[in-house]
Amino acid sequence: MSQSDRGLRRLAAGTLLVAFEGTTAPPWVLRELEHGLGGVTLFGFNVADPGQVLGLTTALRSAGEPVISLDEEGGDVTRLAYHVGSPYPGNAALGAVDDVELTRRVYRAIGSELAACGINLDMAPSADVNSEADNPVIGTRSFGPEPGLVARHTVAAVEGLQSVRVAACVKHFPGHGATRVDSHLAVPVVDVGMDVLRERELAPFRAAIGAGAKSVMTAHVAVPVVTGDTPATLSGAALTGLLRGELGYDGVVVTDALDMHAITRSVGLAGGAVMSIAAGSDLLCLGPLPTYDDVRGIIDAVVAAVREGRLPLERLEQAAGRVAALRSWFGEGERIAAEQNVVGLHAARRAVRLTGRAKPLVEPLVIEVDTPPTIAVGDVPWGVGPWLPEAEIVRVKPAAADAPALLAKAVDRSLVVVVKDAHRHHESRELVSALVAARPDTTVIEMGLPVWQPDTAAYIATYGAARANAQAAVELLTA
Questions:
Q1: pLDDT digits (tens, 9 = 90+) for 215-227
Q2: Which residues are in the Glycoside hydrolase family 3 N-terminal domain (predicted)?
Q3: Any catalytic annotation for residue 441?
Q4: Which among 172, 176, 184, 425 is annotated as catalytic?
Q5: What CATH code would you report for 352-478?
Q6: What is the dihedral of CA 23, 13, 38, 156, to 10 degrees?
């Protein structure tokens, strides 16, 4: 391979954030980092404990200068606490409190934990305005349904993370909050005019750019007024025209995971990679599915596109320059001690809301109504069990639940029903309604968005299902 060929391959590899299985770095990742690979994205399956993560990131750094990223939003979407649940409430809870200094403190604490583990880019916060209550993928990940609220808390989150030299990645541009389709599964559409788009979807991104956000993540969402039928991740009109041009952003643009069906089932993984770089992205998050063979195929496809004139070499060089500037901002790998404080629980306590009056618990039976996790959240534990050791916990699938049997089990006992986003699941609402009709003294704990609640029964809204949210709810229940 000639020197020019090696240089071109290095530029192509420099756009990729790869993933791998396991808690140690495979030899191919270390080898590719030596040859210019952009970096890695870590997932829950890469995490055992903070010491192990630090060892992993140290090994990665020994091979190159990687961008080391993961999704640590607090709340439902966590990677460091994937196996136990986050100690921090998510954005919906922070939006419900609406104290920007609290949001800044929570994100600074999250950032300090990431920095102590050697992670330098957090794929957070979500700046989506959750204007669609039935949104299947954003929900509690959003600060709320109002653009001004979302904008001011997005700024606070960016400032909190970046105060400890962890880059924020504000997502999902140009906005995923008004959708009813999960882009992991298909291409959602935000079909609004430019006036609405500017006033609603773009307001938090404009504010985040003004606050110096180091990176912005694209959405696999079509916005017909800007992108036609094309997802924003692949659209020059969205990334170069709107984000770079109208909003004046010159930081790093990171794609959402390219292994999502919105990309793979339309233009394919390698085709999507080439199109996204051409559109204006700088780092391609590949997601957890692509193998090393896929990675090599993507690098080859980018190289071929440059040689064939379909992708300007200058676009790759521009991306490399932006990523190099980000690496310089990271600094010299300074170790920042994690802030061991209780800000997460404090925030969850301020967010939790009680409607009605919860009665003292007597031999409590807790029925947790199972809700399928979204792909973004994954299989993170949730529920109140850890905080109610004296209770009997029964986890049921709503379609298969036997309400009369559950009620018989609860005779002469306190009944607590825990749900998650009941407004989005008809069978969950039916089960809760049946239980509450028979037992008006039931306490319902909603660990998603509190959009629906039964007419009777005490009702606790947590605005999220993180570990901190559950503890705050139980404290309120047992006060």
A1: 999 998 999 999 9
A2: 34-325
A3: no
A4: 184
A5: 3.40.50
A6: -110
